[in-house]
Input
Amino acid sequence: MAAAVARTVVARGGGGGGGLRRLFSSFPFASPQPAVAPSPPAEPSTNLFVSGLSKRTTTEGLREAFSKFGQVVYARVVTDRVSGYSKGFGFVRYATLEEAAEGIKGMDGKFLDGWVIFAEYARPRSPPPPNGAPSSGFP
Output
């Protein structure tokens, strides 16, 4: 008796939402498109952008880690003005392009203070908005 009921339910499209699945499976879903086109890689320079830093990472720790790959002219961990903790990114400048390339090869995807960091060529700052308008969009 139960088998006969099960056959009837399946034949009518019931039992586990098979009918709904059929209804929606033929719906032509468009694959999502990225909202913003990925930006092209930055031009090689001696200035590197380093992201993924721990809140415990200091400027000296950053300088020390990257100095294994060349002469570090400048290193800075960007910190929060109030708390003084790292914002999770910083900059390293090498003396030559070759040293900067070695710094990226040596540190990109490696651990620093227990966190995986990412090193890439820094992009130049975008120009400020015209007429001194705030960049946040608020008047």
In short: Helices lie at 2-11, 18-25, 59-66, 97-107. The radius of gyration is 27 Å.
